[in-house]
Each structure stands twice: as C-alpha cells, then as structure tokens.
# Entry
Amino acid sequence: MSDSDDTTPLPPDLRFLKFLVTTLAGVMILGLLTITVLLVTRLGTPVPLPELPESVILPQGTTPAAVTFAQDWLVVVTDAGEILLYPRSGGAPVSRMPLP
# Structure
C-alpha cells in the first residue's frame, strides 16, 4: 500500500451521508440543550398557590394545607387531616369529614 491510497477522496454518496450524520448530531445536541434550559427555567420558578377567599370561615385552630376549587364547591384540607366542604360563595363549612 502506498500513501496515495490513504488520501483518496470519499465517494459523493458517502460524503453526503457523513454530512447528514454530522448535522443530525448537531441538531440533537441543540435540542437536548433547549429541553434542559426549558426544564430548568420552567421548573425552577415556584408556582403561586391559590389563596383562600376571605369569605371562607375556617373553624377555630385549623390551618389550610390544600385548597381545591370545583365548579360549585370549595374543598379545604386542613393540616390536622380534615376535609372541609364549602359552597362556592364561601361562609361556614357545609360538611366536615376526617381523612381516612
């Protein structure tokens, strides 16, 4: 074998395939970077929690742990493990039940 055999140019089809593979690798790296940046920026910011309306009257000594707004009802889960069901307009709880 001589040195001239090592420097022969690639066939056109193989050069095109090499270009496609290189381009695909670059696009995949950019895509991974984009997804990583989006996940860090979107998941890094805390989501503001909904506030309990002023019209809702909580029983003495309870603290809300979770609030859910349904179409006609407002559900409050207390830190003591109790579920309070309110009408959408607020006021006193219509139903109280302990968590199982």
Observations:
- The CA atoms of residues 52 and 98 lie 20 Å apart.
